[in-house]
User: What shape does this take?
Amino acid sequence: MLVAAAVCPCPPLLVPEVAAGAAPELDPARAACTDALGVLAAARPGRLVVVGPVDGSGCETYPEGTPGSFRGFGVDLDVRLGRGGGAHTERRLPYALAVAARLLERTGWSDAPVEGLGVGDRLPPEECARIGRDIAARSERVALLVMGDASACRTLKAPGYLDERAAPFDAEVARALGAADLAALTGLDTDLAHELKASGRAPWQVLAGAAEDAGLGGSLLYEDAPYGVGYIVAGWS
Assistant: This one.
């Protein structure tokens, strides 16, 4: 069953070494992520599943110890998912799960084994919910770390330019995540989320499916749009 969840954004700039001189701008978001991970630790889960976006319409699994890297951003920094000594796989963590791995490292996560799940940004809502239900149906106590950004269209300089639909979309997502409103998350418009470049849509809907019978309450810990991208942090327990 699902016992807790944390929702965090996934920009590589969340990693201070990548952000370099701009690192202080996201310090409030990093602090909120640390608080959200604290919610997970307090629940004493038997396993942590990290869910993040990947391209396409399928799913990809990443066992504990899967490596990732930020060398593509000009930083000599490697990470591994969880405490595993190295998974026997050629696969590398996508950027969202690499950010999660770094967050877990920085907070000293050692409370439970970790595995990763990449969900395609075009995966239908009903499939996302089914995946979430499958995760929650495991016999052990499971927690989720859900990575994903809201819209990337909040300002003229945003990656997706300014779209007047972005702010209302982000506000509703923040409300739904803060209230643990499963129906609202499940009902997010797939096409609109894609047009607004909201990478968190599918991971949030996986969370909604996993939480169907969990009776969790939500708390909104952070919501802002630095660089014109919506970043939301929430904890569910």
